[in-house]
């Protein structure tokens, strides 16, 4: 392969062009938007709910497998699916309490910020009426 300097084309730059910084677009967006939650906690409630559902489904699969193998009774009377669902709920609740503590704390911070913001707006609206 020949370099552009060997081709003799004056419109092409030589391969040994000095390194220049790429054109960058200045960031015109503010770093923080007033009243907006940080990016990490923007969907904390959705994240916690999804993870809690995931823990429940995992517990249900484990309980169903244990019932299938015979470690747990498959049913109490005729309530096989209900028995497995209830057992999975009982097992997943304490697991979620321990395993999802950080996500629950992020969610509570997000909810608290929203409630405080709503209270400030309400107080501002009430002060404007007077």
Structure explained in plain terms:
- By secondary structure, the protein is mainly α.
- It has helices spanning 4-7, 44-69, 80-99, 101-129.
- The termini are far apart.
Question: How would you briefly describe this protein structure?
Answer:
With 130 residues, this protein is an all-alpha fold. It is built from four helices and no strands.
The residue ranges in which pLDDT falls below 50 over 5 or more consecutive positions are 24-37
Q: What is the typical, i.e. mean, pLDDT?
A: 76
Strand proportion: under 5%
Number of helices: 4
Q: Portion of residues in helices?
A: 55-70%
The quaternary organization reads as single chain
Q: Radius of gyration, rounded?
A: 30 Å
How would a textbook summarize the main sheet? Answer: none
* Shape label: elongated
């Amino acid at each position: 392969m020949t370099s552009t300097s060997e081709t003799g084309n004056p419109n092409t730059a030589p391969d040994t062009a000095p390194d220049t910084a790429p054109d960058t677009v200045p960031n015109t967006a503010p770093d923080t938007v007033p009243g907006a939650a940080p990016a990490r906690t923007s969907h904390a409630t959705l994240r916690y709910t999804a993870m809690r559902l995931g823990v429940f489904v995992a517990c249900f699969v484990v309980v169903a497998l244990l019932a299938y193998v015979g470690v747990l009774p498959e049913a109490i009377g005729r309530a096989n699916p209900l028995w497995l669902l209830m057992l999975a709920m009982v097992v997943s609740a304490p697991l979620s309490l321990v395993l999802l503590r950080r996500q629950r704390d992020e969610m509570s911070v997000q909810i608290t910020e929203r409630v405080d913001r709503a209270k400030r707006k309400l107080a501002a609206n009430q002060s404007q009426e007077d």
